[in-house]
Amino acid sequence: MTDPVPRVSLIFLISLVAVTAMGPMAMQLIVPSLPAIGADFDVSLAVTQLNISISMAVIAVSSLLYGPLSDRFGRRPVMLWGIVLFVVGTAAAAVAPTIEILIVSRVVQAMGGGAGMVITRAMVRDLYGPDRSASMIATLSVAIIAAPMISVVLGAYITDFFGWRYIFYFALLLSVTVLVVGIGTLHETRAGRRSADSPVRDMVRGYRILMRSPIFAGYALQSAFGTGTFFSFMGAAPYIMVNLLDRPVREFGVLFALVTIVFMASNFAGGRFATRFGTARMVLFGAAWSVVATLGGLLWFAFDGLSVAGLFVTSAVASIGSGLAMPSSQAGAMNVMPEYAGTASGGAAFSQTMMGAVFAQIAGSLVTTSAAPLFVTMLAATFIAFVFAALPTIYAGHQAGGARGLVPAAGED
Fold first, then answer.
1. What's the predicted TM-score (pTM) here?
2. For a disulfide at 367, which of 193, 197, 209, 236, Cβ 3.0-4.6 Å?
């Protein structure tokens, strides 16, 4: 008999989605404004690009901190202080007089933005438990995926009509609204636990315990390398479309939006199917699907050459597998040790962000005169993701076999 579905207000769930989307949306709003910012401050594109690259690194590192802090001090206070930090950084960026102050302001903004991406998933795990959390995590993942896509369009229009500073005024209005609504609607889902250790020692202990678990490593790294597949495509596909296929940028934008929609839909479906088929099966099935898709794409390229259809169909079909697996892999990582659910969420978010950045850089750097490195990189990422997807199942079978006497105990022949 399964536990009853918890009664959670609609406004609470909407607040969770808003907090989750706030960070990714504000981080990407600035992308279309980079040329205008460079011209305003009279600096190179490489310098203005630091507003993106440093922010991504800061979000990744802050993800490692928010999870353990929310385990120790409670979800609600840590999340609200993260939003406050985001508001402060956004306000400073809006009035920054120099590029250096703008970059520092973006660092503060990014430090706050990481809170929602980590803690909301832990709150869902607190409320829905191991069986139903994947479904709700899928909803939050859709927000994380959709927010950057929408924000790039919004940022372009805001910059064209009002100027680049108004993207921060818009983000400030958004974040203050989320903060006010969050104070009134986001209740505590897990009180902090007492510990005699310092917060730093407590955090280190939590990550040490989790990294000793093959199940956590399998789920977290499957999700990370699955994300790497998607970011490999993001890093190299624009160059391939414009320079190797001689197609306009707007065509890439439309087709990439379609791939993103496929990914969001499969992510949403993966969360729903997880309740019926189980976490481990969904992760393994999704990972295997992506391997077949990227292998098929590589063979298509090898025998038929480079084409727009081959490029985008491969990515879209592979994204179905990643989408089906991701909600379950994220839920599975947090289910290993419920008392460290926040820490697990932070570790998984960190590995996703860093692996996405690494694969985007690898694919973007290797693709010069041929698209072959992209197809090979995507296949490598999906294969490694599949290996880690199998790890929890293999380990669980090993443990069960040992319990039945099928695996010799220590010291036995």
1. 0.76
2. 236
